[in-house]
Fold this protein.
Amino acid sequence: MGKYIVRRLLQMIPVVLGSTFLIYAMVFAMPGDPTAGKCGERACPPAYVKEFREKYNLDDPLPVQYGKYMGNVLQGDLGENQYGIPVAEDLRDRFGVTGKLASMALVFQSVVGILAGILAGLRKGGFIDNLVIVSTLFVISIPIFVSGFVLQYFFGLELGWFPVLVGADATFYRLLLPAMVLGSLSLAYIARLMRTNIAENLGSDYVRTAKAKGLSNRRIIGIHTLRNSLIPVITFLGYDFGALLGGSIVTEGIFNILGVGGYVFTSIGNRDGIAVVGAVTVLVLVYLIVNLIVDLLYGVLDPRISHD
Amino acid sequence: MFGRDKHTAEQDDTHRDDTTRDTTGHDDANREEPATVVKGDPIAKPDVPPWERQGEQLLEVRDLFVEFHTSEGLAKAINGVNLTLAEGETLAILGESGSGKSVTAQAVMGILDMPPAKIPSGEIFYRGKDLLTMPEDERRKLRGPEISMVFQDALSSLNPVFPVGWQIAEMFRKHRDMNRSDSYDQAIRLMERVNIPGAKERVKAYPHQFSGGMRQRIMIAMAIALDPKVLIADEPTTALDVTVQAQIMALLKELQEEHDMGLILITHDLGVVADVADRISVMYAGRIVERAYVDDIYAAPAHPYTKGLLESIPRLDQKGQDLSAIGGLPPSLTRIPPGCAFNPRCVMAQDVCREESPPLRDIRPRRQSACHFAEELLDD
């Protein structure tokens, strides 16, 4: 197990280097002037351009530029964005909000999705099953920017149960509605995945054995069926959490949440290369670590997967 | 192999009146002095085996019907099966796939999925109590401590995500309220009993870490954990290779004698049956078509289907000859042919076979067959 983790961590190094290099190259080596549009309507003064090019080593060959940038990153310096604010500081705030939102969405989608899936799978073809199938189909077919606005209008404006916008003060209560919107799509997939697994495992030989052992229904479903049915769902949840941590441009946009997705989006719009590369570097790391945790968890849940 | 004399039905004149309930007798003592057996009153003789005595049956299935409601229509899986099983007796149920042998076993166990399965009529008595009318919770508590089952494919029948010891120990924890460490001790004891080497070290291993034979031993350990009175083994050796098959059968026989269990052995392998079983019921299309003592059936089958099955066993003394097989396929259970269900495949079929379904009837002492021409077949 320990060996496996070390091996996986070592594997991350080339992945991080490769992906960040690609992003760096795309941001800084693309045709076009990196300082264009930085000074409003006018062209930037030559002194500013010179300073900018020197600061980010833009006159060096690309690999050298990248090498110098990564050197700084390793020392914890992600550079400053175009407003002179350290990117690391920005990202800390933004990741705080996104992490909170992602966790809430994850809890919401897993609890509701798994429960709905169990109830549906236990009585395949029954009322709850049909209800779950139809409602999840409904959720899956509606794009999130539609459901987001509809729920915001309905629960935020009409009923007034939730704040319409989140803004700078991202409290639990304010993030509740956005988290539900964000988690709704995955919830639908989880419910369907769980339903299929439960229904399939209920017909499996080991569940028949559990019945033959004279176990109570509760134990047959709660222990013998559930554990096996959860394995694929946990995998899905893990990868989905990684994606959620990348931020969501649409949901953040609708509810005015100052998260990672919006940060990357505006930085790209502003051609703020340093901010984009910094944010993406962190995102790659987060995604890799979440993936590692999911894989380890998978081995714990399913003893047939060996990490030796 | 297990110390029983060979005999044929012709030599046997022990007979009971209610043989329709499959309580025909078989004992070596009877064969030595057949004249002393009082006809119709086997209880009078003390050394009659338990399954010959009246009113002492461990398990009794009466007129059982099971049907499945499928998209293709009503599949009649079991059509009036009668069985009895006594303590210490081994009853083999023989038949092709789809003959209803596994469904019978699952109906007895109470683990049929209902729906789609339905039991429109029939009774299953365990020690005089009807399992089918019993509250489900009461019946559930019999599964494990009283009636237990070993399945065909041990890899899929064991839960892949729990250690084998945990799965055996679960029997003690749930039925006997035993604590964790005591129940694990029991699991180790049972694993040792079924000859798993290094039981103590392997109690925490998972099913996929065992070989096929070892996994089947674990299934058996789990099934006998609470000393059940009835053990149903549903093709316990089908998924195993031949040498392991023999070991598993020997183990089952040994455990049966040790605990004086009634054993129902479901199989399509006549070779497995010969050594182990006392009596055989041959099933076809959800009905019992022949019922006899194991030696009788091997000496002279009284149903063309049984005959076909016996002829399809490869034999060392008939090397080089073509192996005969029963032509055709078992009928679809949604469209069982009229008359005798076997008639389309039967070499002896006459017009009467296509019109009239032959009842299971006594043709010889302690022998029953559901064939219009059973006597002709026996006289051949």
